[in-house]
Amino acid sequence: MTTPMVDGGKSLTEEVAFLVLTGVEVFTMQTGFAMLTAGAVRSKNVVNALTTNVFDCAISALAFFVMGFAFQLGTPANRFIGTGNFALAGLDPDLLVQFFFHWTFVAVSTTIVSGAVAERISFTWYLIYAAVYSATVYPIFSHWVWSPQGWMSGRASSNPLFDQGAIDFAGSTVVHLLGGVSSIWGALALGPRMGRFPASGRTSRVRGHSLTLMALGTLLLWIGWYGFNCGSVYGFNSSVQIQVTLSDGTLSGLNIGRTIARCAVNTTLSACAGGIATLILVRIQLQTSHLPACLNGLLSGLVAITAGCGVVEPYAAVIIGVGGGLMYIICNNLICKLRIDDPLEAFPVHAGAGFFGTLMVGFFAREQYLAEAGYRVVSWGVFYNGGGRLLACQIVLVLCAIAWGSVTIGLFFWILRATGTLRVSEEEELVGHDYETHGSAAYPEGTSLSGLEDMSQRITAKRSFDVVVDEATPTHHERYRAASSNSSDHAHDRD
């Protein structure tokens, strides 16, 4: 019995093992998202944040199993959508690992929205959103970019966009920009949290309760990002050895090892550059090293490099990381001026940096690196005299992501807004989701967490010249009783 071989001698077993291990690493990003979200919300909403993150993973897995994978990579397929392998029926057993690996990406993109709608969205409607997004919105768009038959794919088997195809190596646009665009529509449909933008015109910071959890979540996301970017070398590649003649007359072709190493180095450099650039900018702007902003700047560097991690030079990764951090600052200031409430700043991090990073591929992609990553080599970075086709493809890619997310999830959220059921009641928002929706609290009653949280918020607000929205009285039970005594809808006792 012989073992199938791919990529010049590597066995199929090795490829499957690599995808499973990197897929598990990507899945650890869900732990990072859970910790980041839990830390960024107030203590009365921590259980809701954790439950939301756990169950959007579960919902996305089943939705992707039933429909999503078929739309993304099912066969037969046309240039716009897959039409077979629903519920994995008839799928080649050798491709089962592709379902697992791609699901981890679906789960990441789905979770992005949770940060923008935190502390006010109906738990039930959020789970329904997760099902719709995972089953249809993400898979169809992903098919356009990552399927060999996709009309925008840089690895398309025939007739790609502008005869070149767009390059989104691991998902700056497919995962992050699409998720970020969806998140801003959710935030707009829900409106701001109570007290976030008072009638006086001042901006009130509704600060999270744990910088510790936010820092832990960011580091876990950073770890998972190596699986995200390095795993994409196999996850989105046909693994067929292709030899191409470069513009200087030399031969080049698929080189998995070099591309994985390049991804790891560029991911590291861009993250560090994004974090340091944001630290400097925030220090200048606020005269303090505001940790949440610095953490988001680091994440923005990771988002920005995801599109080109396998096809750009290390110096370009530094530039892209700095640009990602700058885009985060610009977009965050913009949504604040527009009075849009995005608790975790999901739109600036994922949409802003994803948009920037995707476009930068059109400037910095190296011809040889495109060949080594398995892409078509008709055009490459403008800065290397590669013509403008690739840049044009990148522009089309980001515009399509914005349009697709707006037409689908944007419409979905606004229809729900019209029903009046998308947002929780004012009473539930005041008391907190934890007791109203989940009947429990993240911290034991009687701890000093609420007082410490309030003190921390006021100290930070004094330094940054912001107004802070007060948490209500000392304990969850007392907040609940106070709200219940003023409402005829709550005559029962939650003791």
From TrEMBL:
Q: Which residues form the Ammonium transporter AmtB-like domain?
A: 17-443
**UniProt-listed InterPro entries:** Ammonium/urea_transptr (IPR029020), Ammonium_transpt (IPR001905), Ammonium_transpt_CS (IPR018047), NH4_transpt_AmtB-like_dom (IPR024041)
Give the principal location in a single coarse category.
membrane
UniProt keyword annotation of Transmembrane present:
yes
Keywords in alphabetical order, please.
Answer: Ammonia transport, Membrane, Transmembrane, Transmembrane helix, Transport
Give one Pfam hit by family name.
Ammonium_transp
Q: Which GO terms describe its cellular component?
A: plasma membrane
Span-the-membrane segments of this chain are: 16-41, 53-75, 95-118, 125-146, 166-190, 211-228, 259-282, 289-308, 314-335, 347-365, 395-416
Q: Name one GO molecular function term.
A: ammonium channel activity
Topology versus the membrane, per the UniProt entry?
Multi-pass membrane protein
The superkingdom listed in its UniProt entry is Eukaryota
What compartments host this protein?
A: Cell membrane; Membrane
Task: Decide whether keyword Transmembrane is in the record.
Answer: yes
**BP GO annotations:** ammonium homeostasis
Membership in a protein family: Belongs to the ammonia transporter channel (TC 1.A.11.2) family.
This one is known as: Ammonium transporter
